[in-house]
Design a protein that fits this description.
The complex is a heterodimer of chains A (about 300) and B (about 350). Chain A has one domain: Rossmann fold, CATH 3.40.50.300. Chain A is built from eleven helices and eleven strands. Chain A starts with 6 loop residues before the first helix and ends in a 6-residue tail after the last strand. Helix content of chain B is about 20%, strand content about 20%. In chain B, the strands form four sheets. In chain B, strands 10-5-11-12-4-13-14-15-16 form a nine-stranded mixed β-sheet, with helices on both faces. A three-stranded antiparallel β-sheet of chain B has the order 1-2-3, with no helix packed on it. Chain B has a two-stranded antiparallel sheet with strand order 6-9. In chain B, helix 4 runs parallel beside helix 5 and helix 5 packs parallel to helix 6. The longest helix of chain B has 18 residues. The radius of gyration of chain B is 23 Å and the shape is globular. Classes of the chains: A alpha/beta (about 300), B alpha/beta (about 350). The interface between A and B is large, with 43 and 37 residues. Chain A: Belongs to the ELP6 family. Chain A: InterPro entries: ELP6, P-loop_NTPase.
């Protein structure tokens, strides 16, 4: 039985119809917008898991994570139990076969084993510690980064320099490189409010998408700027982005079974005939401990 | 805070199997988290995550945030937890005298009296030697209470606020926040977070961080930078930072940034006196001091948001002494007349029976 495609993967053009063969992004810029009521970090978690998943074609990916919001342990703990399951955890025949064919060392690496009802199955997790040791994850802990008042530009340049070095170091491995920044609203705080320097940083990072075919994924708190007098940063980021993912509450508020709605604008969708058009998708979501459920309004069973 | 108990899959962790903490005033939660009490029983279905930043948005019309702050600090003192307190006052130490004492119920009082009588019979001559060395942590049935009720009419015992238990800092003395940041760093260095058993926990209580009388008041990015670094420092320590700020005194954009920085975000609001519309709308309006709203609850090591059954509570004083939070109840509406029963003050059923009378 094939695993049902995730609405999110379909909307992001990550799924080419074969859910076990996700297409990696190449040179894309993705902007995740969220607000106080609906935190968009679960989108990042989903994408990290996708790109670092061991048995998919996207296993040729390397993730460079620049963390301003949470420590490494937070992401590690969240991603550890995440996995691909059928319903309440009964694995597909393909998953069981794949596991049986896998070398035991691969099973241990990045996998978390559990037993339910006598059935053995492998909950495909994402062990960030292992991924970091395997050099598939490069984690920059920026929680304490602060640029001095008279040295904001130098501090931001130094940060970009470190990211560029990391990209150059792995570019020879012929793997897809994804840079994730969580989040640029906090980068602004680290830069003492210098929006100009933050924008320069993002523009420099954008050059990596063409030079090294990197993908950049970043989070921004949209509600900060909607109440501000200036919209420079979000407008520029939206201009740069190929895909915009917006997490927001429902008009009616939040509920236990519907945690919010996602609106995805994919500017670069190909219709297969060489034509590119924008595609907008909107659906609801419910965040669970081990996964995220996506459904159309009224479509949740 | 009442947490929503949704359906759990067969893969949900068995939270009930979490070990209880051996440190008084702490308890283990899911996902490797540890909680300490807010000091308000109605806010404590879990408590505050150790390592989290709790923010209260003040209402400049009423000081209800002070009720929460006092209970938070008193709870820490009862559990013998070190406290760092900062406020825009010339003499912040004077505030400690307004902290409430533990509320002792009549049952506890008679139980304690019986126990004391027993002690006196056995070793009355030694009682005089028990004074400041006596353990400050009150116990019930041999167990330390995780969360106590406090009597706002009576000040806390003096021996609890003596000595170095509470470090007080005046924000008026801070031309910039760099010095205060160093003080927080030094305080938290005593409470490092290591994997394994923790030995102690502490509390940072900051009142009205962006008060206009502070010199740094107009330096919005400095304040944001301070909060961000405080959050990072607290995250790697065994402490909870509790910070109040008058949100209306900073720009909306900056206020939103503060809100995003908070792990747990609450707000308090005054309610007008003798508001007939509210009196008609809400049951028990006359007893309400104000409203407390829960905007965000800390999520550590999990991506699942906390969806509460209710996000707005009324703030009341029970018997004029202890702080209670109650869910808002809409006064029943008389379907025939269209008016509510709010003025009657009761929820008794209608004397008229309709076609659908259950």
């Amino acid at each position: 039985m094939d695993r049902p495609a995730s609405f999110l993967d379909e909307a992001l053009s990550l799924d080419d119809g074969d859910s076990n063969n996700l297409q990696p992004w190449i040179g894309r810029v993705v902007l995740v917008e969220d607000c106080v009521e609906t935190n968009g970090a679960f989108v990042l978690h989903h994408l990290i898991k996708r790109f670092l998943s061991p048995n998919l074609s996207s296993s040729d990916s390397i993730v460079i994570f620049v963390a301003f919001a949470q420590p490494f342990s937070h992401y590690d703990r969240i991603l550890l139990p995440l996995g691909d399951r059928q319903g309440e955890g009964v694995p597909s025949k393909e998953a069981k076969r794949d596991i049986g064919d896998m070398d035991w060392r691969d099973l241990v690496t990045g996998l978390e084993l559990a037993w339910v009802g006598g059935l053995g199955f492998a909950e495909l997790g994402c062990n960030l510690v292992v991924q970091r040791e395997n050099k598939r994850l490069i984690f920059f802990d920026m929680l304490m980064l602060e640029c001095p008042d008279d040295g904001v530009e130098d501090g931001i340049i130094a940060l970009y320099g470190n990211i560029q070095k990391a990209v150059e170091a792995v570019s020879s491995l012929n793997k897809n490189i994804t840079i994730m920044i969580d989040d640029i609203s906090l980068l602004e705080v680290a830069a003492n409010g210098s929006t100009k320097d933050v924008l320069d940083f993002m523009h420099y990072c954008h050059t990596l998408t063409t030079q090294f075919a990197c993908t950049i994924i970043t989070v921004i708190h949209e509600d900060i700027y909607s109440s501000a007098d200036h919209f420079t940063l979000p407008l520029q980021m939206e201009h740069l982005a190929d895909i915009k993912i917006k997490a927001e509450p429902l008009v009616t508020g939040l509920a236990a079974d519907v945690h919010g709605q996602l609106t995805i604008l994919n500017k670069g969708s190909s219709d297969g005939l060489g034509r590119w058009k924008s595609k907008i998708r909107n659906f609801h979501y419910r965040v669970k401990e081990n996964s995220v459920e996506y459904f159309y309004p009224g479509g949740r069973t | 805070m009442a947490t929503n108990k949704g359906r759990t899959s067969s893969f949900s962790r068995n939270f009930s199997a979490a070990p209880t903490s051996s440190i008084p005033g702490l308890k283990y939660g899911p996902n490797g988290t540890i909680f300490l009490s807010s000091g308000v029983p109605d806010l404590d279905s879990g408590g505050f995550h150790l390592g989290s930043l709790v923010m209260i948005m003040e209402d400049t019309e009423a000081p209800h945030h002070m009720l929460l702050l006092r209970n938070f600090m008193s709870q820490g003192l009862v559990h013998n937890q070190p406290i760092l307190y900062a406020s825009p006052s010339t003499n912040p130490r004077a505030f400690l005298g307004t902290l409430p004492t533990m509320l002792v119920s009549k049952d506890d009082r008679s139980r304690n009296t019986d126990a004391e009588q027993k002690d006196l019979r056995i070793a009355w001559q030694y009682k005089k030697y028990l004074g400041e060395n006596k353990p400050h942590i009150e116990e019930r049935d041999g167990k330390v209470e995780y969360c106590n009720e406090f009597d706002l009419r009576k000040p806390i015992e003096k021996h609890l606020i003596m000595g170095n238990r509470v470090e007080c800092i005046s924000l008026l003395d801070c031309s910039s926040l760099a010095g205060f940041r160093n003080s927080c760093s030094k305080f938290l260095s005593q409470l490092p977070r290591y994997d394994g058993n923790i030995t102690s926990a502490g509390r940072i209580a900051i009142q009205s961080l962006c008060a206009p009388q502070c010199e740094y008041f107009d330096k919005e990015w400095d304040m944001l930078s301070f909060i961000r670094s405080l959050k990072s420092m607290v995250r790697s320590s065994n402490a909870v930072a509790f910070l109040t700020f008058p949100a209306s005194l900073v720009s909306p954009s900056v206020s939103k940034r503060w809100q995003h920085l908070a792990d747990t975000l609450l707000s308090v609001k005054a309610i007008p006196d003798e508001d007939k519309e509210l009196a008609n709308l809400l049951t028990g309006y006359q007893d309400m001091l104000g409203l407390l709203s829960v905007h965000k609850v800390a999520r550590f090591n999990t991506q699942v948001p906390v969806i509460l059954d209710a996000t707005t509570y009324s703030i009341k004083l029970q018997k004029r002494r202890s702080l209670v939070l109650e869910c808002l109840n809409q006064a029943p509406v008389d379907g025939s007349s269209g008016s509510s029963y709010g003025t009657s003050g009761s929820c008794s059923g209608s004397s008229k029976t309709g076609t659908l009378d259950f």
